[in-house]
């Protein structure tokens, strides 16, 4: 979670009202961060419940 601060320095989420607490938790609580990479052979898929 301490790496959140590094990520926040890159993307500046304060501009849209997201900030970190002293304990590196995001507020508002429903906020989510992710680092997503693509791959040339990646495919979309669906998980169906029958």
UniProtKB/TrEMBL annotation:
Q: Which residues form the AdoMet activation domain?
A: 1-50
Concerning InterPro entries, the annotation shows:
VitB12-dep_Met_synth_activ_dom, VitB12-dep_Met_synth_activ_sf
Q: Give the keywords, sorted.
A: Methyltransferase, Transferase
User: Which PROSITE patterns does the annotation name?
Assistant: ADOMET_ACTIVATION (PS50974)
Q: Reply yes or no: does the keyword Methyltransferase apply.
A: yes
Q: List GO molecular-function terms, semicolon-separated.
A: methionine synthase activity
GO biological process terms, semicolon-separated: methylation
The superkingdom listed in its UniProt entry is Bacteria
The cross-references to Pfam families, in alphabetical order and at most eight, read: Met_synt_B12 (PF02965)
Recorded protein name is 5-methyltetrahydrofolate-homocysteine methyltransferase
What organism, scientifically named, is this protein from?
A: Mesobacillus boroniphilus JCM 21738
